Amino acid sequence: MKQETWSRIAAVRHQSPLVHSITNYVVMNNTANALLAAGASPIMAHAHSEMEDMVAIIGALVVNIGTLDEYWVKSMELAIAQATALGKPWVLDPVGAGATPYRNEVLNKLITDYKPSVIRGNASEIMALASMQGQTKGVDSTNAAEEAMEAARHLQQATGAVVCISGATDYIVGNDKLVALHNGHPLMSRVTGMGCTATALIGAFCAAHPTELFEATVAAMALMGVAGEIAAEQAMGPGTMQLHFLDALYILQPEDFIQRLQITQQQDAFSV
Ligand SMILES: Nc1ncnc2c1ncn2[C@@H]1O[C@H](COP(=O)(O)OP(=O)(O)O)[C@@H](O)[C@H]1O
Ligand SMILES: Cc1ncsc1CCOP(=O)(O)O
Ligand SMILES: [Mg+2]
């Protein structure tokens, strides 16, 4: 399992897949640099006139609603429609789900009209998305991790997407599959765009493994966690954390990765 996960990281380095992100202003630079450091190739574009042509040449599409507006939402729909028509994976980052009615309306439409291949969000975003898809049970519980797990299960079933809840432990939920990753460091949440970076890397891994989206998502999140942990050992605070994180993505070797990776899996997501 650990060796197989490393082989997916090596495949991204080897293939250097082109990842198209329609993402927010805050994280464009972080995520483009992280994709490059992991061996992938980033492109960011949102002009309506080039969406179809752009999606025709990419390996995967990442849609991040962080700083959405009406023009960009149309860009997202054009790009997603083309990705769907061409059978290319697209990954959704529902930044701020639940924060405003507009955000919720857009997310609900994207999820309902165009099924994402993978959804990655933090616990509260996954819970907000699940409630939009008809889940009403459990959303007010004080146990965030458990609640988000129920929500992720619901969301996975409602959409067919692989669902990743990120946090101190990352959970990846597929159809009857569940993996938990226990790497990472609290300092990661002190750097903006770490979640968006995780989603961008999932895009790269899905591009390199388009028929194994669950495993691709696990590998991307495993890389995030291990690189985050290594970076935190070197960092003095959030500023140097950002720099060391990029370096860790770039220099990571299989021995260190396999030694550090903390992964647990259950075949049946419904037994947790
Ligand atoms: N307390 C923590 N301990 C370990 N890793 C963390 C912690 N908080 C966040 N991470 C990691 O940081 C990355 C971003 O996750 P998260 O903070 O949940 O996303 P977002 O920025 O979208 O809220 C993930 O790779 C996650 O594993
Ligand atoms: C602060 C902020 N505001 C709109 S998008 C964004 C970045 C969010 O990035 P992440 O969820 O990865 O921390
Ligand atoms: Mg986020």
From TrEMBL:
It catalyses: 5-(2-hydroxyethyl)-4-methylthiazole + ATP = 4-methyl-5-(2-phosphooxyethyl)-thiazole + ADP + H(+). It is an enzyme of class 2 (transferase). Pfam families: HK. One of its GO terms (molecular function) is hydroxyethylthiazole kinase activity. InterPro entries: Hyethyz_kinase, Ribokinase-like. Keywords: ATP-binding, Kinase, Magnesium, Metal-binding, Nucleotide-binding, Thiamine biosynthesis, Transferase. Pathway: Cofactor biosynthesis; thiamine diphosphate biosynthesis; 4-methyl-5-(2-phosphoethyl)-thiazole from 5-(2-hydroxyethyl)-4-methylthiazole: step 1/1. Belongs to the Thz kinase family. Catalyzes the phosphorylation of the hydroxyl group of 4-methyl-5-beta-hydroxyethylthiazole (THZ). NCBIfam families: PRK09355.1, thiM. This is Hydroxyethylthiazole kinase. The gene is thiM.
